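Chapter review: from sequence to fold.
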Amino acid sequence: SLDATQNYTASSNSSDYTINKATPSLDITWTSPITYGTPSDAQGVETNDGDGDVVYNLYREDGPGSGNYISVSNPDNTILGAGAWSYRFEATEGANYSQLNYTLGSLTVNQASSSINLTLGGVQGNASIDEDTSIDLNCSTLSGDSGAHLVLYNNGTLINNGTSPIGNTTLFSEPGDYNITCVYENTQNYTTSSE
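The token string follows.
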């Protein structure tokens, strides 16, 4: 606006300005992949300092690949089962920031290694016995799911199976070499192993 002077009349000009809401910049950080038994460290972060009245929420699938999201703490330190877990981080609308629906991220949890203990007559390792002798063959889970399925074989023939511990008292009436094998079968969280 200009005031009138001796040589010029007064004049003014105005324009309207629209200030649009900014969009929050959302991200999800985590260490991926991790091994089963390691807590998740997934965390939703907003990187351009949105309004104080913006509410941020972190969600995680209720099972690997389920597509059903549940609200979790931010950061999420849950021990998750093996699989690919999807996370979603979203912001509500604030006075100066618009709502950004969400950003997605995926955390991979790998299976842990299982281990078992096989004993032949109470000895872990090879054993020698006399002909016509019975000994206990036992197998138990050292690391793995408590409900995992174990199988016990004598020269490839199944002699017992079930959850840990399993065993069989076996009579060896013929001289020779016998291969006794115990197998921990693959589960969601642990790989297969044998001894």
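Two observations follow directly from the output. The first strand starts at residue 26 and ends at 29. The chain has a mean pLDDT of 88.
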